[in-house]
Amino acid sequence: MIVPRFWAEARLRDRIAGRQVTIRRWGWSDESQAAAHAHAEQRARDALERKRAGEDVRRFEQKVAYNGADGQPIREEIVERHGETVVTRNGYGALCLNTPNVLFLDIDFPELWDRFEPLLLLAFVVAGVTGYYTRSTARTVGAFFAALVVCSALVGLIVRHERRKHDPYSSDEREALDRIAAFVNARPDWEARVYRTPAGLRVLVTHRTFDPNEPEVLECFRALGVDTRYAAMCRKQKCFRARVSPKPWRTGVHSVRRVRPRPGLWPLTPAGAAKRAAWVAEYDTACAGFASCRYLDTLGRGGVHPAARPVLELHDRLCKANTTLPLA
């Protein structure tokens, strides 16, 4: 698992083909800030040499939306260490549990936009056909908005139908639970705990430890429909990951909707550290009345491996998984 403690950024400038070029690269280390800076300078020199040789080289490295999925180490503040398990604070301020060998996976249900997207496409098609046959801009625009009204009504009917069953995700949840049960039941040695999250389900596999790159993990991800970016992060970072505190904007407190200072990049400047500390204090207060997931059931009879038990207990404690608090 690659979650370095120290980070530094190096910048090198040179004139190439008559133009000034600046190369910025991050370096990292678990030993010291100086070692991280030396690593950053070496990576910047290597990139600059490739640029001089005519290679198409990115001038700077951005932090991607799903941290770690681009192949760089996870660049987040380390909040706690529990043996090999590390708890970090992600780019929007929530805590994430990172473990090298205990298999976690989330299955997200379709959002409202996912249901509306094909209907929006239909609205564009209706508008396009109308415009083609009428040659009238006014009628094309009118047809588009009329189609949007109809599409919105259809989405409303879908949502109301689901809510009448007391859960807007009920049909998606049943399908996902059936997939999980079928996968686990076909493997007599497995045991998996299933949790409800605000957007879907989480599975924690407990009967043994796993290498993130082993075939059975990849098979599990494919069978259960795991997000491809998460699967890529697991392979490249050699770890599994689960969010264990609420998303700030779900807590209902306006002042903690987004991490401070923005954007929530790591490491921070000294001025940024003070703002972050104030934000974290307010965020922790807002989180007190929420859970990140809720325990539902255990499937299979494979038991709990000794190495998985501390991770399971830490996850359930941080998520408040055995409470009835609202999910966020």
What does this structure look like?
The chain contains 8 helices and 10 strands. It has 328 residues and is an alpha+beta fold. The chain has 3 domains: 6-61, no CATH class; 80-109 and 169-319, no CATH class; 112-163. Strand 3 (77-82) and strand 4 (85-89) form a beta hairpin. It starts with 5 loop residues before the first strand and ends in a 9-residue tail after the last helix.
Number of helices: 8
- Main beta sheet: strand number and arrangement? 4 strands, antiparallel
How far the N terminus sits from the C terminus, by CA atoms, comes to: 27 Å
What structural class is derived from the secondary structure elements?
A: alpha+beta
Name the assembly state. Answer: single chain
Radius of gyration: 24 Å
Q: How many discrete domains?
A: 3
Q: Spans of 5+ residues with little confidence (pLDDT < 50)?
A: none
| Mean of pLDDT | 88
